[in-house]
Amino acid sequence: xxxxxxxxxxxxxxxxxxxxxxxxxxxxxxxxxxxxxxxxxxxxxxxxxxxxxxxxxxxxxxxxxxxxxxxxxxxxxxxxxxxxxxxxxxxxxxxxxxxxxxxxxxxxxxxxxxxxxxxxxxxxxxxxxxxxxxxxxxxxxxxxxxxxxxxxxxxxxxxxxxxxxxxxxxxxxxxxxxxxxxxxxxxxxxxxxxxxxxxxxxxxxxxxxxxxxxxxxxxxxxxxxxxxxxxxxxxxxxxxxxxxxxxxxxxxxxxxxxxxxxxxxxxxxxxxxxxxxxxxxxxxxxxxxxxxxxxxxxxxxxxxxxxxxxxxxxxxxxxxxxxxxxxxxxxxxxxxxxxxxxxxxxxxxxxxxxxxxxxxxxxxxxxxxxxxxxxxxxxxxxxxxxxxxxxxxxxxxxxxxxxxxxxxxxxxxxxxxxxxxxxxxxxxxx
Length: 430
Prior knowledge:
Layout lengths: L1 H23 L6 H13 L15 H22 L9 H6 L1 H24 L4 H11 L27 H16 L1 H13 L6 H33 L7 H4 L4 H15 L4 H14 L6 H32 L5 H24 L13 H9 L5 H11 L8 H37 L1
Helix pairs in contact: 1-13, 2-13, 2-17, 3-7, 3-12, 3-13, 3-16, 5-6, 5-7, 5-14, 6-8, 6-16, 7-12, 7-15, 8-9, 9-11, 9-12, 11-12, 14-15, 14-17, 16-17
Organism: Nocardioides agariphilus
Subcellular location: Cell membrane
Membrane topology: Multi-pass membrane protein
């Protein structure tokens, strides 16, 4: 009976994934808001207790499902970005200026602020650091409403980028992998003790080494697959000519698996793979076909996760939520991320007429839209499976509440605020 109901939930989520985006497009509602609400209603029905909804009893399942959702999303993000990143071109790096500032300044500030807030509320150091690391990254899965729509190819490939959407998309593509060192810092605090015993290893390997391995593997896999798909001397291997878009799935699984086997960061590898692949024949329509396949799979996985999250919320997931968890969630959405983003984007200000330049309105919008989502669930499941100290009901309740708050606030405000940003940009250009 439990297995049958699991299939029913999965089937319902797939059906909603097909019809929901068009149904809610005319209202100030995002698909994630509706999915969580439907899940909440389903959770109130007399479902059997055997459904795998308890995050602590089903930690491994939750970790792998959310892991898959994130890597699929990262592949889509990498393929969607039209702005190139050329290693030897300073102007190319400058055009990514908002991304670097959000990663180097905003994310560490957010981690530190939430960790200090948690510590001040009585959390153990390891738990406080984990809370900051879990909630700091902008989620590539749920931030789709404020990200670039997809790769522009053919005659449209020269269109100008929307700076806010580009900044949020590129940030989401990179910060999931860059949050991992701080998750590992929390795990090391909980398992190895004081930082004095492991800080050098953490910096050398978890901050630098694993990131370099992940990037190297991703670039290598993306470059090799692009060379085969577009330029192989054997026609049978030039899959771009016949539009075999399932190569995108093969690429993301290969890049992730190889990076993890090599002990690198798989999330960074997948994003780097997509970017490297996209750099080959940038205007080719094959990129759009690959992105469409990835986007469809991402939508199905995301809506399934959100539906299950909604069910879990009304069946005990928020049972340990207290005033401290509410304070953390509200502070993050309303204060920590916006302030950290503004500090980052206001530093080394770049001319708004240049690529990577943001006007005041655009800086405000970019700082505000730090959407939290599926990636946070994955990080918490990953850490809780490696330390009993980090496997706390309170952490699950707080992270779940923060995600719902972010889905609600950012989902309702995304459409009207982005329209205002775009109108301001057009007025400036004209």
